[in-house]
């Protein structure tokens, strides 16, 4: 028997869209979670074009499958179709299954086909959490390079793991449902640049925030993710954490005019975030990979509050990664540095909003 991947049967994690019988996952942290009663079940994954490129150097979709909180499968979708047989922990009984897309949208897409079970087995959605959080960010939020302790190595989906990012850690520590909208290298006014004379205006989070994100991967019969609009009514968070500015810093640097422009555009983006998340507390954070633009973030927040009268928004400085600890790929934070940032954010949320 096949079980459709709808909210009636499974909890949908993150931004997901059903196309006929396939559930499309693009963004980091998207997936499904459900209670399963039985001896074992089969999950079938469909890859995009990236899964069929020979010697793709670990840049296919990376998937994690958890049973009762324990990682049971961690694999790259390096074939067009992959089936995984998941056995219940006790042999027969009820287990919680979580399927997570560990890699981000830009380089990899994946679809999940209906769950196959046998007679007498059951699948039910896990209950919703009391707290819901959305994280908006860049490579830091994605967990870029977190599993590669060589700062001279470049990006690979195989060393990217959102579950080891400060965002996922924060949600786990607060026992919250979560949703990620994050793309590596993207910013508010410019994506990352190694030449300050070049602004990457095509790599902006505000451009794609209302969609399923930007992916260079493609799937036959599926529109490009940037053209698939997200229904914000499906997930209304209590808290939105915005971690943007690290990539803009590569373009702004110490140029005061550019910093002011960044601040102005950040204010505009906050209006979009509020429009789509009317009741959420907005927490603007920065600092893990440098804080030069943090004053500009604070200015954006103040300008937004003055202009709109909206006071349900704050800023928070996150601790910068420690060079003595080391770095992940392309000088991104390792898991221990993500943990430090998560600890600060968790304590802040508990003190300010959960007492």
Provide a quick synopsis of the model.
With 355 residues, this protein is α+β, with helices and mostly antiparallel strands.
**CATH homologous superfamily name of the largest domain?**
SGNH hydrolase
Tell me the domain tally.
2
Compute the gyration radius: what is it?
20 Å
Q: Major sheet, described briefly?
A: 6 strands, antiparallel
| H/E element sequence | EEEEEEEEEEEEEEHHEHEHHEHEH
- Architecture (CATH level 2) name of the largest domain: 3-Layer(aba) Sandwich
Strand content: 25-35%
Gross morphology: globular
What's the CATH topology label of the largest domain?
A: Rossmann fold
Helix content: 10-25%
Distance between the termini: 46 Å
Task: Give the number of DSSP strands.
Answer: 18
How many helices? The count is 7
In round numbers, the mean pLDDT is: 95
CATH class of the largest domain: Alpha Beta
Low-confidence stretches: none
Which structural class do you get from the secondary structure elements?
alpha+beta
Task: Write up what this structure looks like.
The structure is a single chain. Helices cover 22% and strands 27% of the residues. By secondary structure, the protein is of the alpha+beta class. It has two domains: 2-125, Sandwich (Jelly Rolls), CATH 2.60.120; 131-353, 3-Layer(aba) Sandwich (Rossmann fold), CATH 3.40.50. The strands form four sheets. Strands 2, 5, 7, 8, 10 and 13 form a six-stranded antiparallel beta sheet that branches. Helix 2 crosses helix 7 and helix 4 runs antiparallel to helix 5 (256-276). It is globular and about 65 Å long. The chain starts with a strand and ends with a helix.
